[in-house]
Write the structure tokens for this entry.
Amino acid sequence: MEKSFLPPSVELNNISKNYGDVQALKGLTFKLEPGERCALLGPNGAGKTTTLKILVGLLSPNSGYVKIGGYAPQSQEARRMMGYLPDDASPYRSFSVRENMEYIGALRGVDNVSEKVDRLLDSLQLREYEKAKVGRLSRGNVQKLAMALAIIHDPSVLFLDEPLNYLDIPTQETVIDILKGLKATLLVSTHIMEVATRLTERVVMISHGSVVWTGTLGELKNLGKEGEPIERVVARMLTDVI
Ligand SMILES: Nc1ncnc2c1ncn2[C@@H]1O[C@H](COP(=O)(O)OP(=O)(O)OP(=O)(O)O)[C@@H](O)[C@H]1O
Ligand SMILES: [Mg+2]
């Protein structure tokens, strides 16, 4: 069904987050315009996963605020709009693949859940595992199921933490096609520059819990020398700030 409304904006304002003595985020501020697709880059431990968990309301910041289309992330309105793929996806292990999808689809209020599940099973090459218990799946197939659960309700804003981890090459291509087809505001954390270049227009680079650079992928490329791979440019920028 075609959505006529604009996807929501995403705003983080001066977010700080401590885990005990560890200051994971330090005054993080950035904004995604409605429908914007953005990659969240940064070295290990920079705060990407923490940022995504705060955006979806799983963690509360120590200070600052988040708005999803103007709503707090814990609100009903924001929850309805959001889809989230965590870095440590953990669907119900004692449910089958199909049961997980039907259960989450029903909770999400998806119309014609069964048909939607059928389409996702086929497009994500999960059909042969539909009756398999999640506890017996390979890691890649768990990741495919987690992706299905993140998008089953056609979210208008999507937060993805390393979405292509563990996926075989055909499924990576399928997932890229599915994500490109969604009319959603997108923030994707990744270490793979190809994910950023194929799925997004803009980059937010963070290090030690703060934004160190933001700009378009074109601007990022232009920071490099003629013919220099974009990975080299990013590596240099991140090494400078580590
Ligand atoms: N539950 C936790 N308890 C204590 N410290 C934590 C916890 N989760 C994260 N941290 C710390 O917070 C900081 C940010 O971690 P986070 O997982 O957000 O980084 P990341 O950018 O997602 O890293 P990666 O690229 O390795 O996934 C790190 O210093 C990490 O050790
Ligand atoms: Mg992470």
Remarks:
- The beta strands are 10-19, 22-32, 37-41, 63-68, 82-85, 157-161, 185-189, 202-207, 210-216.
- The pocket of magnesium ion (ligand 2) is lined by residues 48-49, 87, 161 (CB under 6 Å).
- The longest helix spans residues 139-151.
